[in-house]
Write a structure and sequence with these properties.
By secondary structure, the protein is an alpha/beta fold. Helix content is 36%, strand content 16%. It has 16 helices and 17 strands. It has helices spanning 18-24, 48-51, 69-75, 78-86, 110-122, 153-160, 178-188, 206-211, 215-228, 242-247, 277-288, 321-332, 346-358, 363-373, 383-386, 400-412, and strands at residues 32-38, 63-64, 67-68, 89-90, 93-95, 126-132, 144-148, 165-169, 193-195, 232-237, 240-241, 255-256, 261-265, 272-275, 310-313, 317-319, 340-344. The strands form five sheets. Strands 4-1-8-9-10-15 form a six-stranded mixed beta sheet, sandwiched between helices. A three-stranded mixed beta sheet has the order 5-6-7, covered by helices on one side. A hairpin with a 2-residue loop joins strand 2 (63-64) and strand 3. Helix 6 crosses helix 7 and helix 7 runs parallel beside helix 9 (215-228). The longest helix has 14 residues, at 215-228. It is globular. This is NAD(P)-binding domain-containing protein. Residues 107-202 form the NAD(P)-binding domain.
């Protein structure tokens, strides 16, 4: 979970509801909490590989062959899963005081590390690490460490006390009751803002959320926040992570970069929004660096309150698989004739993914998740429907070939999203 500074004094509390006035009056500073679960190094693979194939978990919604997708995962290799969960490490909590952050931690997770680096770059953020009470994780000397028992609500409530913004960034391997516990504890601690574990597709598209194996879980977490009637929420919509997904196997963006193979979904020309991990981190830092409310009725500057109880849509590129292959050809100085190109209809590929998942082949999770975004009905292009917050958040334009080159370098050095993230 992460947090950052934004303004909001007692006078400004008159512009918001009673609940928010109570929260704004809690303390003069702004505080933020951030915790991320990241995988350990014990090398457990097999069924766990597909569990880690996406940025956000999908639990207890779709039923595959009469068995809940999450239920099925938790039944598979239960002994190994216990070891796996024991290795999960909470990244930390960002704490803001006097509208500035003065300390920071080197977070250990993939996206957590990037967010931490971006927060460090501002020169004003500090971090208090929230970690298990039995954890031996080493933190930087400037980091304040709060050890908690994740099964003890009081422990979590105490850790979240005084925080103003909580960002939850969970791995798909986190126990399925983790996020509800965190949300409930945040409410009891009076945390005014919560960003649920998301980094997902279009949350306003209910059909897409119900079919892509991860969106409905985010909607459930938002409902949990609403039901507590304490915190406001804001969710970051990024779609799939570009450089991560391109470097992964064909179940993701359809590419096998090392062996120069690609499976086009339909004709490969369906465009989707996709965001790089650095841009995701920049978006979070930009959001958390905004003041909460306008100074007065004449203030037209961007504030966090503009996204109160709303999704924030950001993106790096609007591209198709064809665009990705063209970029690879430019970076590798190759042409289509140097690559094995196949085609698969979107519905056939999506259904195949579900069938594989039902048959305990966890690669099907990634196949279904990613294919659903490439449906030719425009579901993956949220930019066309709502526009983007990139300009409001002052996010830089990125170069597609530069990020493609980064993916190629990841593949060449043996990077693997499951076992080797160096």
């Amino acid at each position: 979970m992460y947090s950052v500074p934004f303004g909001g004094d007692d006078a400004s509390a008159t512009k918001v509801g009673k609940r928010d006035q109570v929260l704004l009056n809690r303390n003069e500073g702004t505080r933020t909490a951030v915790t991320e679960w990241c995988s350990g190094s014990d090398g457990v693979q097999r069924t766990h590989e597909a569990e880690k194939c996406c940025e956000s978990p999908r639990r207890n919604v779709d039923r595959v062959g009469g068995v809940g997708w999450a239920e099925m995962l938790h039944k598979l290799h239960r002994k190994d899963r216990h070891r796996w969960h024991k290795s999960l490490v909470p990244v930390g909590v960002l704490e803001l005081e006097s509208r500035q952050l003065t300390e920071i931690i080197q977070a250990g997770g993939q996206i957590g590390s990037l967010i931490t680096e971006q927060l460090l770059a501002t020169g004003k953020h500090s971090v208090t690490a929230i970690t298990r009470d039995d954890s031996t994780t080493k933190f930087l000397t400037k980091v304040r460490v709060a050890k908690v028992n994740y099964g003890n609500e009081e422990s979590l409530v105490n850790a979240f006390g005084g925080q103003q913004f909580l960002i939850i960034a969970l791995s798909v391997t986190a126990p399925q009751d983790t996020q509800p516990k965190l949300i409930k504890a945040a409410a009891k601690a009076g945390v005014p803002w919560v960003m649920p574990s998301s980094f997902c597709s279009d949350l306003r598209n209910k059909e897409l959320s119900n079919e892509n194996l991860n969106g409905a879980d985010v909607l459930d977490s938002i409902e949990a926040i609403k039901n507590e009637e304490v915190s406001s929420w804001v969710a970051l919509v990024t779609s799939y992570w570009y450089e991560y997904s391109l470097a992964m196997p064909t179940e993701f963006y359809g590419f096998d970069v090392a062996n120069r193979k690609v499976v086009f979904i339909d004709d490969g020309n369906t465009k989707i929004n996709t965001t790089t991990q650095p841009q995701t981190a920049r978006a979070i830092v930009a959001l958390l660096s905004l003041k909460e409310l306008p100074d007065d009725d004449q203030d037209r500057s961007v504030t966090l309150s503009q996204w109160r109880n709303e999704p924030v849509y950001v993106s790096s590129f609007l591209v198709s698989q064809r665009d990705m292959l063209d970029s690879l050809n430019r970076v590798l100085r190759t042409k289509d004739d140097d690559c094995e190109i196949k085609h698969e209809p979107h519905k056939e590929r999506y259904n195949r993914g579900l069938q594989e998942l039902q048959g305990r082949d966890m690669r099907g999770f990634a196949t279904a998740l990613y294919t659903r975004g490439f449906y030719p009905n425009g579901d993956g292009n949220y930019e066309a429907k709502y526009g983007l917050a990139n300009e409001a958040l002052a996010l830089p334009r990125e170069d597609l070939d530069e990020l493609t080159r980064r993916s190629v370098a990841m593949v060449k050095r043996g990077w693997n999203g499951f076992t080797n993230r160096n």
